[in-house]
Write a structure and sequence with these properties.
Elements (H helix, E strand, L loop, with lengths): L14 E2 L1 H24 L4 H19 L2 E2 L8 H8 L12 H15 L3 H6 L7 H21 L4 H13 L2
Parallel strand pairs: 1-2
Helix pairs in contact: 1-2, 1-3, 2-7, 3-6, 6-7
Length: 167
């Protein structure tokens, strides 16, 4: 009589209450958003780009590892987008002038005292809309992948390269 070989089944991955998963995503989004802006602002700084890409990829993989109870499910693409793309980034036309000012303050805090970057952008012609649109497109793609458990560090780095080169 042949012995039946059992197929390897990975251990059940840890799942969390949905509220905790959402809080985890919200807790990481500021770091990811700051690094995305740095990537757009300092796109000629090769060593820094490499570091920030790695950090963003790692954070997105960590987000993907957090699944929701009771069925070990991911959030929806809309939920990931909502919690990743949030203030101060959300400066749509419905938002007030105060929100755009907050966005400017956020960008200025990312730029800090970097005279090189400050010299490239006048406050009146800073490409807020362009940067915002790039980040929206990035998060739409990433949110779709997160909701299906398809995020890998290599895919994130590829999307970041496309974000930086996007015109």
């Amino acid at each position: 009589m042949e012995k039946k070989i059992k197929r390897y089944v990975p251990l059940f991955e840890m799942a969390f209450p949905k509220k905790e998963v959402i809080e985890f995503v919200k807790g990481i989004q500021h770091t990811i958003n700051t690094h995305l802006f740095k990537l757009l602002l300092f796109s000629n700084e090769k060593e820094l780009l490499k570091k920030w890409k790695k950090e963003i990829a790692q954070r997105l993989v960590e987000i993907q590892e957090h699944k929701c109870k009771p069925n070990n499910m991911y959030l929806t693409p809309e939920q990931y987008f909502q919690y990743l793309y949030s203030w101060p980034l959300d400066v749509s036309e419905e938002k007030s002038k105060g929100d755009e000012d907050n966005f400017r303050l956020y960008v200025n805090s990312v730029i800090g005292d970097n005279k090189k970057i400050k010299s490239l952008y006048d406050d009146d012609d800073f490409p807020f809309t362009e940067f915002n649109n790039k980040i929206v497109n990035f998060y739409k793609r990433i949110s779709s992948l997160l909701s299906r458990g398809k995020i890998t560090k290599d895919v994130v780095k590829l999307y970041i390269d496309e974000l930086i080169l996007e015109k």
